[in-house]
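Posting this for the archive.
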Amino acid sequence: MGLYLNPGPKRFRMAANSETFVDKTAMLSHLNSCVETDRRFACVSRPRRFGKTMAADMLCAYYGRGEDARGLFEGRTYYAAQKWYTEVVELDSGKGYADVAYLPSPRCPDKPALLIELKWNRDADTALAQIRDRRFHGRLEHYLDSLLLVGISYDRDECPGSEDYKRHSCRIERLGDS
């Protein structure tokens, strides 16, 4: 009975490491807002073959009391911030496209804006240099006081299943601190 009630993160870990994983962690933000309220009971209903089991495995990993599963969610934490940010994919800067920008919602003017550049087989410093050289931040003039530049580098040559698959490096700096 204990295994049924608290199965741990094993199944979600396997799903999250697969090539076909579709991240549904955005649901956690809503569920966290319901904890310890009269809306604390949740029914995860989806059409057939639409991820109910994966969602249940994710909830078991996130809310489980057994093995520590924080590492499974660390790379997905920006999903919990959706109520604070608007995502802009391929932000046109006039001199190219920044891969992703997260702009704080009007309700959260105290949050920093994020400008993210992704690189394959290069280092994170190269990604940051591209943001600065092409002046991607020029389109975000309203956020220059609190703009974070994020450079992420992935190793494209690693095969799925290898120990280094999805290995990356990341550098974050505040605009003007470079």
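The longest strand covers residues 85-92. The CA atoms of residues 117 and 130 lie 8 Å apart.
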